[in-house]
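Lab notes, practical 5.
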Amino acid sequence: MSALWDPIAARGDDGRTSGRPLRAVAQPAARLARFPYLLVLIGIFGIGMVGLLMLNTTLQSQALQSRTLNRQATELAYAQADLENQLDALAAPQELARRASALGMRPNPFPAFLVLPSGKVVGEPVPVSGDELPALIVKTPAQLAVEEAAKRARAEAKAAARAAKKEVAAAEAKRKAADRAAKEKKDSRSAGTTKKKSTEDREQP
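Output from the prediction step:
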């Protein structure tokens, strides 16, 4: 043991070497056992897998919701386009004229204009009966159907009246013919009776 310390003592006093004091080496840290370390690794790996699974599920749910919302947006866009087409059709001038005619409104060839905001009336307002411009009256299909049905009814009534008139004329002609035949028969009987009487008168002494 002294043989080991002799060179040290020869280098300096108080056990110093190269001007630095000697220090005790710290105890080495206790190493973790393998089993708890594996449990920690498995726990971290499991937490990571669960997190990835939840993230994947969330992403799939959001993707499905996004597709649903896109489909609903497309359907609503088609519905909006359809409604806009219907609105354009209803706002067309011919449709407005048809609806005005259905409400009983008629075009006025003598219009008067109201100047706003002064309230001055330009022109002479003249009431119309509705027959001034028949070409501008737009009739609805229902009105056309009613007019067609009325026209057919009038034609059928005229045909029935003509048929009834013909039947009355035929019955009158038949009655006149029967009266004429009866009169002729009566006249022939009267003539035969008169002739027979005159013959008997000539045969008497």
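Observations recorded by the TA: Residues 85 and 190 are 93 Å apart (CA to CA). Residues 1-5 have pLDDT under 50 and may be disordered.
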